[in-house]
Design a protein that fits this description.
alpha/beta; TIM Barrel; eight-stranded parallel β-sheet; three-stranded antiparallel β-sheet; 12 helices
């Protein structure tokens, strides 16, 4: 059976919560199932500083059981996107990221054949972000880095971040971009539209900016994983190309925007079989990876079944999406993938 590597999952270690508590940045109550988070840590809209808190976020045994149930061989966990702390000062932001990365490393060490981690870095200070990226990858063994879609509202195509992109290329680690500063403001406050519409729209916007700003042209080794099927990006790729042909404002890159789609990876969290089939047809099976977005309710329960339902794929294509693609780019990051993830029906994980 092909291995399944989940590239989009979240975990919130107790040790990290305790660090935030010591800084006076959080009120976390397991009994009430709720977290109140300081605005300097939470990058979302103000009303979202009250966050859910439930066992699957912090109970590693429960997460191991869920991964087993979902047919996942190895799950790459990262902090939920509420905890990037881009609004904090550089020193505090770096301390928060260090604490998060240390806590994730400790959690992974309890079940290293089941879990791995993407670290987080203080992008509000590019030099500190580079330093923490190096520490997270080279010392803690994280397989890549998770970033938000803006730095406290500032765009990711800011040239000041070039040092960070260069370090990602030098270390050869994937960048998992998760939307967290969603579009629409108060217009999306009702009906959960900040997530339902704002998150995928934010991803499409930010990646379009990165493409037109030449980030992927300047850093051809950069590998980026996009959450939620890449949001709106694949659907607007033709429009971006047409604009490139007819609008002078877009003549900033030597190739049409769609030429850069092959540099991106898209997870399978679309909640729409027809859309996922279109995505695979548009970007190719080699550019799609498994994501579950668990333990949140906007995730998917059956990644193997989701991939099995994609029409027109042969066994090699399905195996690539399930784990082969992730295995390839993560092995280049120096991750310990020479050994197969532990079979799901084998002995208990260490």
């Amino acid at each position: 059976m092909p291995i399944c590597i989940d590239c989009h999952a979240h975990f919130l270690p107790d040790d990290f919560i305790e660090t935030l508590r010591r800084h006076g940045l959080i009120d976390a109550r397991k009994d009430a199932g709720v977290i109140h988070l300081d605005r300097s840590v939470c990058g979302y809209a103000a009303q979202q500083t009250r966050l859910p808190y439930f066992p699957l976020l912090y109970d590693l045994d429960a997460r191991t059981a869920l991964a087993e149930q979902q047919g996942i061989d190895r799950q790459i966990v990262c902090l939920p996107p509420f905890y990037f702390a881009y609004g904090a000062g550089p020193e505090l932001g770096a301390a928060i990221c260090r604490a998060g990365n240390d806590a994730l490393a400790a959690a992974v060490a309890r079940a290293p054949h089941r879990f791995a981690a993407f670290g987080t870095v203080p992008l509000q200070s590019p030099p500190a972000a580079v330093a923490e990226l190096r520490r997270a990858v080279l010392e803690l063994g994280h397989w890549g880095v998770e970033i938000g879609s803006s730095v406290a509202g500032a765009p990711l195509d800011d040239p000041a971040l070039d040092a960070f992109w260069a370090a990602c290329c030098e270390l050869d680690v994937p960048v998992f971009m998760h939307p967290h500063h969603e579009l629409g403001g108060e217009r999306t406050a009702l009906y959960y539209l900040g997530n339902l519409w704002g998150n995928p729209s934010e991803t499409g916007l930010i990646v379009a900016r990165l493409i037109y700003a030449g980030v992927f042209e300047r850093f051809p080794q950069l590998n980026m994983i996009l959450a939620h099927g890449g949001g709106t990006l694949a659907a607007i790729a033709g429009r971006l190309d047409h604009g490139y042909r007819v609008r002078p404002e877009t003549k900033t890159i030597p190739k049409p925007p769609s030429a850069y789609l092959s540099r991106l990876y898209f997870d399978i969290v679309t909640h729409d079989d027809a859309l996922l089939a279109y995505l695979v047809g548009r970007v190719g099976a080699a550019s799609v990876v498994v994501g579950t977005d668990r333990p949140f309710d906007m995730g998917i329960d059956d990644p193997r079944g989701t991939v099995a339902a994609i029409p027109g794929l042969d066994d090699a294509g399905r195996a690539a999406i399930l784990g082969g693609n992730a295995r390839s780019f993560l092995s280049r990051a120096g991750a310990a993938l020479a050994e197969e993830p532990s079979p799901r029906a084998s002995a208990p994980l260490p």
